[in-house]
Amino acid sequence: MVYAIIAAGEGSRLAGEGIRSPKPMVPLNGEPMIDRLIGIFSRNQATHIYVIINEFSPLLKQHLETQVYPVPLTLVCKNTSSSLHSFYELLKAMPEVGECCLTTTDTVFTEPEFKAYVHEFEKRKDLDGLMAVTTFKDDESPLYVVVDHEHQVLAFTDNQSIETPFVSGGVYCLRSRALKTVEKAIRQGNSRMRNFQRQLIKERLLIKAYPFSKIVDVDHAQDIQTAELFLREIS
Question: What pLDDT is recorded for position 235?
């Protein structure tokens, strides 16, 4: 499995709250978030990991270039205007792949749940994509995920106009048809991951949701404490 991590954001909200470290290097219980993700991926069938960072993160660049990781890591250093554009740049750096698992550096989940998620994706070869979802809502602008009784995704919505317990967890396992839709979305002027996800449904790709008990998105200083407590509770 090829993995990709978006770590190209500026982390402006954390910086504004006094967190001086680059966001991917913020420690959770003593371990930088980026290293925690790379470790989890390395233990879950990773053959190669691609990471995109912006050009204003010399400390992060040095960290990633000097660490010894158990699987090959390719670093893409480029400023992008959105997470979707970051994903597009990551795909350009890869040889053509049949499947990829993508997340952002600030997404915190448990390794056992992630392992089960990847196993389900590998087992379901008929799927174009398997999206992590959760009932835990801590995002300032959550993306609601509407599913049927078999967890096939019917819609992605910005508000809960259709009753659903799920919001997007920001982890995406995607196969070739879904990956090819990224470039199409960029050409059509989309600049947000949620609009790309809507396009997958519009084009009738088979996308299913996989529920996680909890996924924490670290955007604010308080989120660091929430994530650390969450990880301590399950350790």
Answer: 66
Helix (H) or strand (E) holding 7: strand 2-7
Q: Could you tell me which of 29, 57, 43 has the C-alpha nearest to residue 233?
A: 29
Residue 25, judged by CB atoms within 10 A of its CB (0-12, 13-18, 19+), counts as buried
Three-state helix/strand/coil letters over 79-132: CCCCHHHHHHHHHHHCCCCCEEEEEECCEECCHHHHHHHHHHHHHCCCCCEEEE
**Structure confidence at residue 10 (pLDDT):** 64
The confidence score (pLDDT) of residue 9 equals 76
Angle in degrees, CA 222, 227, 232, rounded to 5: 130
* Domain assignments of the chain as residue spans, ordered by start: 2-234
Q: What is the CATH number of domain 2-234?
A: 3.90.550.10
- The residue type found at 182 is V
CA distance between the termini of the chain: 26
Q: Which residues of the chain have pLDDT under 70?
A: 10-11, 15, 235
Tell me the DSSP string of 44-86: TT-SEEEEEE-TT-HHHHHHHHHS--SS-EEEEE---SSHHHH
Q: What is the pTM of this model?
A: 0.94
Residue identified by tokens 């400390």 is 59
Residue 233, C-beta contacts closer than 8 angstroms, at least 6 positions apart: none
118-137: pLDDT as tens digits: 999 999 999 999 999 999 98
